[in-house]
Amino acid sequence: MLYRTVPKTGDNLSILGFGCMRYPSKGRGIDEERTIRQIRQAIDGGVNYFDTAPVYHMGKSELILGRALAGGYRGKVRIATKLPHWFVSEPADLDRILHDQLDTLLTDHIDYYLLHNLSKGGLDRLRPLGVFGFLDAAKKDGRITNAGFSFHSNVQDFKEIVDAYPWDFCQIQYNYLDETSQAGTEGLKYAASKGLAVIIMEPLRGGNLTGRIPESVQKIWDGAPVKRSPAEWALRWIWNHPEVTVVLSGMNEEAHIDENIRVAGTAAPGSLSAEELATVNAARDEYKRLMKVGCTGCGYCMPCPAGVDIPGCFAKYNTYNLFPHDKAIKFHYIMRHGGLEEAKSNAGLCRSCGKCQKACPQALPIPVHLKEVSKEMDGMIPIAIPIFKGALWCMKKFGRVRRFVTGDRSHA
Fold it and tell me: Are residues 38 and 136 in the same domain?
């Protein structure tokens, strides 16, 4: 296993991290015994960074991770978990949620604590609730060691959040298809230039880059100078970047754990040859050729007078069409653009003013494409958003937040 150093602290983290969002299932629930064996298999193979969150597996992810780290394993790893800030409505909620997480994880401290899925709007809401003072106090009294945030919005907002607080680390989505999406390469390099460790999530696009590979893409891999699985190509491409600290993998098959650990033993920065990089670039270009909308995510079309997140909507639409078997993509679109936390930014808001089309370097017929996106993606927003907001209200009103957020054992 190779390790990389956190710039601000000198902490050595395994370049392969274990993502705890996709535990193996058994019946309608989690196969807890197998999950614990897999977690310990990864630790025995050198993995020392485990990423979870209260909402993963409806509160059970933290609970099972805590149990898996009993018997001496806790001292071998760094736990990363997240503050679900949408449950925070008053300052006291910050300490209460953290207290419950420590209890659930069976530990007295969290090594890497993130504000989950932070956006500019989310940060603006959290500031007056004293979130920065809370992080300072929790670091001072030892409940958390490093403070960070995870992110899924645009690079401009990403830079503003990076500059808002002396973060120790951040977590971004990054893979060879997302060089210009969300924080992208620009955000990766910006965070690293500020001394932040950068944790990478979705290196395989939720498994889509290793699942049903388009025939034309598979031909590129088959013709490569070195024979590797699509997963190994994707992981090595990310580890080739020296700015990357850890790459998270949602490993729920023993063979995948072994393969990833093997690859993580040799994937040093700058280790890919020019010919190997050309192979990955060819696969990337073929995926993009298959996309419905030729948007590069440059952002010249923004801001939209009607409030549409044009690059964001196109990115989700393209992903949905590339991987139609992945039902989570449309859900993510609804949650991101449907108005759950911030103002709506879905494609259906388009008024066809044409301002975006004039600014587009690709000369794309953006209003036409937005109508296509809205037809395919917007239908469930009027139903899903009220239901989700109602569920959040009920959990807060009737005291069920703790059970959902932390998997509280007293309610099991």
Answer: yes
Q: Which are the contacts of 96, defined by CB distance < 8 A and separation ≥ 6?
A: none
Q: Give the residue from 59, 64, 7 showing the smallest Cα distance to 38.
A: 64
Tell me whether residue 300 is in a domain. no
Over the stretch 4-45, which tens digit does the pLDDT of each residue have?
Answer: 999 999 999 999 999 999 999 888 889 999 999 999 999 999
Same domain, 267 and 379: no
Within 8 A by CB and 6+ apart from 315, the residues are 181, 182, 295, 297
pLDDT tens digits, 312-342? 999 889 888 888 778 788 888 888 888 776 7
Supply the pTM of this predicted model.
0.80
- As for how many domains the chain has, the answer is 2
Residues 120 and 171 in one domain: yes
Q: How confident is the model at residue 395 (pLDDT cuts 50, 70, 90)?
A: low
193 lies in which domain range? 3-274
Cα dist. 168→163, 196, 231, 309, 343 in Å?
12, 5, 29, 29, 29
163 and 20 within one domain: yes
**341 vs 152, 297, 404, CA distance in Å?**
13, 23, 19
In the block, tokens 């990955």 appear at 280
Q: What is the DSSP letter of 85?
A: G
Residues in the chain: 412
> What are the structure tokens assigned to 50, written together?
């485990």
pLDDT tens string 138-182: 999 999 999 999 998 889 999 999 999 999 999 999 999 989 888
